[in-house]
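Ferredoxin
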Amino acid sequence: MKATVNEDCIGCGVCEGTCPEVFSIGDDGMAHAIEGDVPADAEDSAQEAAENCPVSAIEVA
């Protein structure tokens, strides 16, 4: 499973607050996903972060 954040991100921080193992807010003020696969123990919280993103900028698949 991989997570991606697209250009619609507004940098609200919901994803980082929900799943800091996968998402962080970068120096540019936007969210970024870790590179590589989402750790197995973070899959549920990564999916929750995607579902709660106010602009649907996150895909977890």
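thats it. The first helix runs from residue 14 to 18. The mean pLDDT is 97. bye
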